[in-house]
Amino acid sequence: MKNKKGFTLVELLAVIVILGLIAVIAIPNSMKVSDEVKKNLYCEKVDLLLTDAKRFGNDHLGVLRKAGDQNCYIPVTVNTLISKGVIKKEQDTAPFITNPYDGSAMDGKTIGIYYYNKRAYAFYKEDNQNLNQILASACNNIETSGRPTNACPNTLNFN
C-alpha cells in the first residue's frame, strides 16, 4: 500500500482556479469602492473649502454688496484664503491642500464668492474636466445654480 501524503495535481489546479475566480470578482469591486471613497473625500474637501469661503465672505459683506450690485463674483484662490488664515494648511510645504482624488494641488484653485439674498455664497471653479464631472454628479451638496457668471473687475476685491 502506498503512503498517500500531499495533494494531487488536479486538486492543486482546482484550488488555483477557485482562487483566480475569487480574485477576478474581488479586485474590481475593491477598486470601485476605493474610487468612490476618493470621490466622496474630494466632495467633502470642496464643501469644506466653500464653507470657509462663505464664512470669509460673510465677514466682508460690505465688499460683497458692491459685487451683488454689479451681479458678479469675486474670485479668490485657495492660497489667498490660506494666507488670510481662513483655511488651515494640511501640510507645511506646498502644496498645502491636496486633492484626495488625484493627488493634485488645490492651492491655486479659484473660489468665486458672491452676494445673494443678504448672504455670502461660494462656488468652486475646477478646470479639470474629469473633476468637473465628479462635482456635477457625485457632489450632491454643492450648489451650482443661481450664481453670477462674470468675475468682478479687479478693483473689487478683499484686499
Secondary-structure map:
Layout: H1 9-59, H2 61-69, E1 74-77, H3 78-83, E2 110-116, E3 119-125, H4 129-137
Report what the structure shows.
This protein is mostly helical. The chain has a domain of 103 residues. The protein is 47% helix and 11% strand. Strands 1-2-3 form a 3-stranded antiparallel beta sheet. The termini are far apart.
The count of DSSP E runs of length 2 or more, i.e. the number of strands, is 3
* Major beta sheet summary: 3 strands, antiparallel
Oligomer: single chain
Strand content: 5-15%
Low-confidence region ranges = none
The N- to C-terminal Cα distance equals: 94 Å
Over the alpha carbons, how many angstroms does the gyration radius reach? 25 Å
Shape call: elongated
> Mean pLDDT score, rounded?
87
SSE series: HHEHEEH
Judged by helices, strands and strand pairing, the structural class is: mainly alpha
Strand order of the largest sheet: 1-2-3
Q: Total helix count?
A: 4
Helix content: 40-55%
Put the structure in a nutshell.
Helices cover 47% and strands 11% of the residues. The chain is mainly alpha-helical and 159 residues long.
List keywords for this structure.
159 residues, mainly alpha, three-stranded antiparallel β-sheet, 4 helices, elongated
